[in-house]
Amino acid sequence: MVATSCFAEKLADYLPLSDAEKTALARLEENPRKVKRGAMIQRVNETVTELFVLREGRVMSFVILPDGSRQILRVYFPGDFIGSASTIYSKAPESLVALSDSIICPFDRASLGRLLDAHPRVAALLFLLSTAERVAMTDRLAALGRTSAKARVAAFLLDMFDRLRVVDETIVDSFDLKLTQEEIGDSIGLTSVHVNRMIRQMEQEGLISRSSGRITLIDMARLEEVGHYTNRLKDMDLDWLPAT
User: Fold this and answer.
1) Please, what is the end-to-end C-alpha distance for the chain in angstroms?
2) 10 Å Cβ neighbour count for 101?
3) Which residues contact 148 (CB under 8 A, 6 or more apart)?
4) Which helix (H) or strand (E) element contains residue 53?
């Protein structure tokens, strides 16, 4: 029987995996660890000893800027490989904190190295997904310097929606954001007051609606236009990768 792995389930959405690949990925999740909301998982500049797969909950990476403000770099969802930036540094380049009660699965770099050596197809897929993430980060960087507050909020909501749909096929047009307006603002360079104003404006324009913490995207085509948004997880060309 093949061991279950949320990491393997996510990767299998992009490329069919063999039983051996699924089993190897599951080994990274053999030592799950519960963490409470607000718990610091890794501090910037600490010696890196562990990498993580997120099994349940939500985690964010962030840095503190010279003026004391916080810049959230990424929000992680179940099935995500957390701390990939730490694979190439001895000191952590970012901090990691739990946004909700979560379950993380720690493993060391040697374990990752053995996986990639034994399963080069998985290595190739991780490289390609990392590249897609870098392109998405480039989009956000460009947006921070060149787009309006409304465009930033629209693009952020669409990005969260598209990433959540990868791990939850039941999502059609609404999702539970589970982020405060301050956390949204720290992701896209806005104050919480400005985020609130933009969300209310988009509600009034019939682009989105809110109910009990859930966001419904009413007019996605218009939101994509407003946010100058491109879904970087869509239309990826993986056909050239070797077969299992």
Assistant:
1) 18
2) 14
3) none
4) strand 51-56
| CATH code for the domain in which residue 55 is found | 2.60.120.10
Cβ of 239: how many Cβ atoms within 10 Å? 6
Q: Average pLDDT by consecutive 10-residue portion of the chain (244 residues)? A: 79 92 96 97 96 96 95 94 90 96 96 95 92 89 86 95 90 93 95 96 97 93 95 88 81
Number of Cα atoms under 13 Å in the Cβ half of residue 59: 28
Of 150, 243, 147, nearest to 196 by C-alpha is 150
Coil/strand/helix, residue 65 = coil
The C-alpha atoms of residue 158 and residue 221 are separated, in whole angstroms, by: 10
Predicted local confidence at residue 3, as pLDDT: 60
User: At residue 217, what are phi and psi to the nearest 5 degrees?
Assistant: -90, 105
Residue 37 lies in a domain: yes
CATH number for 223: 1.10.10.10
